Structures are given as structure tokens and as C-alpha cells.
Amino acid sequence: MPTQSLRIPTPDGQADAFAAFPDDGERHPGVLMYPDGFGIRPVLREMARQLAGHGYFVLVPNPFYRHGPTPVIDLPEYIGEEARPGVFAQLMPMIEAHTTERILRDADAYLRFLTARPEVVPGPIATTGYCIGGLLATHTAAAHPGQVAALAAFHAPVGAAGPDSLHRITAKAHFGHAETDLTPEALGELNQTLDAAGLDHTSEIYPGTVHGFTMSDTDSFDPAALKRHWESLLALLGRAL
Q1: Using an 8 Å Cβ cutoff, are 18 and 60 in contact?
Q2: pTM score, whole prediction
Q3: Using the 8-state DSSP alphabet, how is residue 121 labeled?
Q4: What angle do CA 143, 149, 150 make, to 5 degrees?
Q5: How would you classify the pairing of strands 172-178 and 201-206?
Q6: 51 CB neighbour count, 10 Å cutoff
Q7: What is the DSSP pairing of strand 125-130 with strand 57-61?
Q8: Which residues on neighbouring strands pair with residue 16, listed in sequence order?
Q9: What is the DSSP string of 163-208?
Q10: Closest to 194 measured CA to CA, from 223, 162, 226, 219
Q11: Residues 21-46: pLDDT tens digits?
């Protein structure tokens, strides 16, 4: 599976990025994949390659490029309970500094770059993300309803985008929530907002999961939930693109 390290021009500098795509020489639908807060690392590269193997050009930007190129912080190979406090102490200032204004400026640049790639077929694209990356994907879909035809977010605080943003989304959407992230009551409130927005969507709690369930390099990993995530994501992309 061909891969490339890329640099995306933005109003605030150059965002480093990783891309994976089929090696058949054809053009394929584009997918903008936002990483979780831990950023681009081997597990994200492998997930991008796996998605690309289904016929997509997958672009994974470094959202925290303003603080340096990947790896923005040093990460252990396995992010377990003991490592988390130190990792989050470094990450949280970057996450808090990543305002909605920054998110939207970057999304504009990422989509311009993705849709201009010669490997990407003209037409709508998809965006997906994990953890904070799911919120970035949601903001991207809300800001670009004419371009984003599919939106997927996993163990992500999508409700933080706010009702006004959610009402602007026209993409088909799937939200897979961790059981520890969202109570059934909070899920009901979110789904009422999504229904009121008229979204073509599924929004559900993956039973028995904790935050970060898709990430195999963390102690939150749930293989069954990761499989369900792939089934949901691929079905969504197949319907929308």
C-alpha cells in the first residue's frame, strides 16, 4: 500500500501529514482522517493503510503542527494507565489552545489540499476522527456541507460542536460512542439534537467500551469494538461516496 509523508500549507504554517492510498494508479474518493489526541503514530498509520485498502485516499494531518512536527510529544509504545498522567499533562495545553477558529482554518486548508490531490477523484469526500479528532471531523463537516458527504466519529465529544454546528451538517453520519463517555440520557439528548437537525445518521453506544476503544496501543482497546467500528465506517462510506 503506497504511503507518503506530506506537508499541507495552512494560514499558520505547514501541517505535516501522512497519506495512504491504493497502488492501482486509479483515482479514489478522499477521506480526511483526524487522529486522536495522541496524534500520528504507528497505530494511526496502520488504520489509514487499512482504510486505503478498501479503495480510498486517506489523509491524516497533524492537528497540533503549531507545536511541532510529528511526534509532537514522546509517546511510549503502549499507552497504559501509568503513562497517561504524564502524557495528558503535555497534551492538554495543546488541546485547549486548539480553538474552533483554528479548527476551521485548518479544515479549509486540509480540504483544499485533499481535493487537489491527483490521486483523489473529483466530488465529495468523507471525514472521520477519533477522540478529539472526531470533534474536528464534526466541525469540518459542519463548515463544508457541500463537500463532506460522510462523517464518522468514534469515542468523540461530538456534542461539544454545539447544536448550531450540528444543524449545518448535510453528510450521512455515524457516531460510535464509548459506554464510559456518554450516559443513555446524554445519548438521548444528543440524538434528539441530531434528529432535529434532520441528519441521516446512526448514533449509538458501543456496549462495554471505554474511551479510546479503537486504539490498539492503549489499555482502552477493545478488539470487538474496533471490528464494529470498521463495519460501521465502511458501510457509511459505501453509502455516501
Answers
A1: yes
A2: 0.97
A3: P
A4: 100
A5: parallel
A6: 23
A7: unpaired
A8: 7
A9: HHHHTT--SEEEEEEETTT--HHHHHHHHHHHHHTT--EEEEEETT
A10: 162
A11: 999 999 999 999 999 999 999 999 99
